[in-house]
Amino acid sequence: MALKILLKGSSPSKEVVEKVLNKQELKEVEFLSSDQTAGQDYLLLENATNLNYDFKYLIGQARARGQGETELLEYRENGGQELELLGPDFVRNEAKVLSSDYFDGHQGTGIRYFLASGEGRFGIASTAHKNELIEVEHRPCLFLDRDGIINEEGDYPHKISQIIFKEELFPIISWARKKHYRVIVLTNQAGIARGFFGPREVEQLHTEMDQELRKRGFAVDAWYYCPYYWPKGEGAYKKHSLLRKPAPGMLLKALADFQINLDKSLMIGDKISDALQMPGLKSYILEGNYDLSDCPADTFSDLDAIYRQILEDFK
Questions:
Q1: Does 130 map to a domain?
Q2: Rounded CA gap, 181 and 260, in Å?
Q3: Can you tell me whether residue 253 is helix, strand or coil?
Q4: Are residues 158 and 75 in the same domain?
Q5: Is the domain of 68 the same as that of 198?
Q6: 109 falls in which pLDDT band (50, 70, 90)?
Q7: Catalytic residue chosen out of the listed positions 35, 101, 104, 147
């Protein structure tokens, strides 16, 4: 079935759009005029100067959800404007909060997919790579929580001497690398907000952990952390943040830095908050460290069990 597309405003040419979509295995495209959209499922590109999105993911999730209009919501640093609150699946809520309470927000990109048979609107959190029209393949990604997954759970570890690596994770990283996956760490670091240590200590620890993992043959592409924590934070870090898991702000930052295929990506963590609010992203949650009674994702007794399930899910 051909993907139907409507171009509006200062979007790129049909030839450029078709080339980008073909690279994402969307081989059959048909361009519509405004008077041809009635009763059609179609992709709207309105003033879409950056096309480095995972369109296959967007369209697949739109069709799976059956909503009338699906919108990409992009990670943007908060520039002082009021921000719309987003629900668990990033449906826009009526409520708004002032930027003094939030550090970062999501804004629509002007890229939408319309289903003629659906009703309502569904927002997908996604973002474009920061460079325009680069010729790079979208690669899947293994996203990892840090404490309890890469290293043993501890009392706010912030020095390399406090880190004990979980070697049972290593076969999963090896599998990901052999499959040409990226490996990216997403970690909430409330210890910064609570004043136990600062961002420099976390960044230094990540540098040293990265070096140790590379010595063992397990490369990590990037480490992202959220320093904000509203309930018990102090000073500038006592803020709500869409970077803080389960919100997908850190993942969206990764999408801006790397070309990632979300359809084939996965997340491993040990808390309910590691089941990220990113539609279609498969999460695997390790039991043992936290209460998982209301976890929306599948839970597993150990990392070996997670590995066996990954091998089954990603044949």
A1: no
A2: 9
A3: helix
A4: no
A5: no
A6: low
A7: 147
The answer to whether residue 303 scores a pLDDT higher than 90 is yes
pLDDT in tens, 134-156: 566 789 999 999 999 999 998 99
If asked whether residues 108 and 237 sit together in one domain, one would say no
Decide: pTM greater than 0.85. yes
Q: What is the extent of the structural domain holding 284?
A: 141-313
- CATH of residue 233's domain is 3.40.50.1000
Same domain? 33 vs 75? yes
pLDDT for res 96:
62
Tokens 């590109």 correspond to 45
In the chain, DSSP assigns E strands to 3-8, 29-32, 42-46, 67-77, 83-86, 92-97, 104-114, 119-125, 141-144, 182-188, 222-226, 266-269, 282-286, 298-300
Catalytic site residue 145?
yes
Q: Is 104 a catalytic residue?
A: no
* Residue 95 tokens, joined: 């409520």
Write down the catalytic residue from 54, 104, 145, 270. Answer: 145
Residues 6+ apart with CB under 8 A from 296: 272, 275
